[in-house]
């Protein structure tokens, strides 16, 4: 039994290190979309021509956008990825006021699967505190069309534009970590 507990503990610790992410905030937007904003460990992302090099990156900023598992519209794939969002983040150094502006783009990996993300260089030291503001635009008229049954029951837009703000975020542990 003692050996089993040690094996379980080692597995839990190693799994936590591999998938370490800082949850910045979690929000639910009707009609049942969950937004989880995270700071993740920097990574190599392809194509490299449009993604910041891992050596220049402090944090991989993410937005996981999925349907909830409860209270979602009929026919919705519970837990499924919600595509076609336009998500922007502003990271502001609380000490200096310097800002970084980021457009999050769709990514896929073997941990979170589909998500929106971008490698970023923090606008200051990794041990500074930051305010993070996320702007979320629903799919536009050229990205998503609505059938009559949806429009009659909900709307001709998925949701109204949203803004979520979080203060005094420390990226220190995430910025020190590495995946490999």
Explain what this protein looks like in three dimensions.
By secondary structure, the chain is of the alpha+beta class. The chain has a single domain, classed as Immunoglobulin-like (Sandwich). Helix content is 16%, strand content 39%. It is built from three helices and eight strands, in the order αβββββββαβα. The protein has helices at 2-18, 148-153, 172-176; strands at 21-29, 33-40, 59-67, 86-93, 99-109, 113-120, 129-137, 162-170. An eight-stranded antiparallel sheet has the order 1-2-3-6-5-4-7-8. Strand 5 and strand 6 (113-120) form a beta hairpin. The longest helix is centred in the N-terminal third of the chain and has 17 residues, at 2-18. The protein is globular, with a radius of gyration of 18 Å. The two termini are 32 Å apart. The model is unreliable at 4-18 (pLDDT under 50).
């Amino acid at each position: 039994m003692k050996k089993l507990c040690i094996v379980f503990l080692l597995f839990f610790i190693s799994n936590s290190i591999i998938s370490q992410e800082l949850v910045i905030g979690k929000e639910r937007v009707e009609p049942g979309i969950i937004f989880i904003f995270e700071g993740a460990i920097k990574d190599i992302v392809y194509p490299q021509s449009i993604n910041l090099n891992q050596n220049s990156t402090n944090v991989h900023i993410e937005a996981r956008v999925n349907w909830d598992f409860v209270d979602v519209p009929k026919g919705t794939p519970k837990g499924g990825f919600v595509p076609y969002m336009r998500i922007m983040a502003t990271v502001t150094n609380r000490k200096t006021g310097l800002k970084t502006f980021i457009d999050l783009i769709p990514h896929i990996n073997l941990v979170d699967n589909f998500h929106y993300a971008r490698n970023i260089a923090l606008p200051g030291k990794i041990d500074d505190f930051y305010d993070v503001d996320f702007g979320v635009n629903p799919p536009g008229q050229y990205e998503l069309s609505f059938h009559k049954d949806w429009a009659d029951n909900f709307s001709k837009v998925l949701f109204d534009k949203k803004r979520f703000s979080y203060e005094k975020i420390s990226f220190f542990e995430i910025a020190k970590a590495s995946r490999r």
